[in-house]
Amino acid sequence: MTLIRSKRVYGIDVIRSIAISLVLISHCTYLLYPNNNTIILSFIRTLGAVGVDLFFVLSGYLIGGLLLKNIESGKTSLSHLLIFWKRRWLRTLPNYFLVLVLNVILLLILDDALPKNLWLYIPFLQNFISPHPNFFTEAWSLSIEEYAYLMLPLLLYLSFFMFKRHFKQLFLKLTLAMIIALFAFKISYYFNANVTSYKEWSSGFRKVVLYRIDAIYFGFLLVYFIKKYNTFFMQKKKLFSAIALFVFGSTHLLIYYFSLYPQTHLGLYVFLYIPLVLLSCALLFPYFIDLKQNGILKNVFYFISTRSYAIYLVNYSLILLTVQRYYEVDQISFFAKVLFLVLFLSLTIIIAQIIYLFFERPILSLRDKYVSK
């Protein structure tokens, strides 16, 4: 275990911890103030969405880095692609299907109706071209990630097989080509959608696979350029962080100041808003990946980071919605709300810890033992 921890990148643990914290804090507002929508609450909930975008860029950065590492070591055959997929699937699928089953069991216990097309959750098709159903809502982002891991890596390795040279150039060119090709679906959405609210845009665009796979591929581009121009990025890391904060802050300030909504400025939200958020996330990476370890905080970030996947999967559908079903938290005193908040966070951490220790970590150990890196 010590050896495994020594190989971790401290800054990556920090990024993952920040991302899951933003998601959790956002969900806390839905628990405490489900019927309120003040500017402050809206901004905190926006940060929760940004936390997911940060996860997307991080996933692309890590997976793209693995693919580049395979290229550098000559692992460019289709058999190496199968190994890549096996390791990815053993990392992501067991937790996903475990929590999917737990959500089904919970609905049966509560005597609620199951989704009509529950089977779509197995091949991650429940939000491929349409809004995600109102069941196991966290799964929308998992669908995006799974198809991102499937589509571009397959195209890359087929190209490696066909051309057998210039592998790094193919990585860059195909990533850019995929992002450009996916842009066509956004254009189609823009001309055909009839959006009447932010929630409708979020469910019909932000959480749909075909419109959001490119978020992962932003991470592919990020790791390519950081590896190629590492000295430049490390020397300018504070400048890039300042630019990231300026872009993020000014974008949201303009949106709130001028009341720019999807129903009135759909083009902004389809073509500019999310790319600007992803760019802001990406520009922070040089600073964080070069971050020096803090002895006290290292263990905190390690704990949160390693449990982040389980935390993400269980906190909302399994815990928060169940609490809301039996208690109207919005109507109780502030002190009682604090107690419910502590209960929500405690249950989230406890259940995530159980999943990590007795399910996720043993599976990862088996993966590392039987599937070559």
TrEMBL record:
Acyltransferase domain ranges (all copies): 10-356
Please state what the protein is called: Acyltransferase
| Key word Transferase present | yes
| Signal sequence extent | none
Its source organism is: Winogradskyella poriferorum
Q: Does the keyword Ligase apply?
A: no
Write the record's keywords in alphabetical order, separated by commas: Acyltransferase, Membrane, Transferase, Transmembrane, Transmembrane helix
Provide the transmembrane region boundaries.
12-33, 39-68, 89-110, 147-163, 170-189, 209-227, 239-260, 266-289, 309-327, 339-359
GO MF annotation terms: acyltransferase activity
The highest taxon in the source lineage is Bacteria
Q: What is its EC number?
A: 2.3.-.-
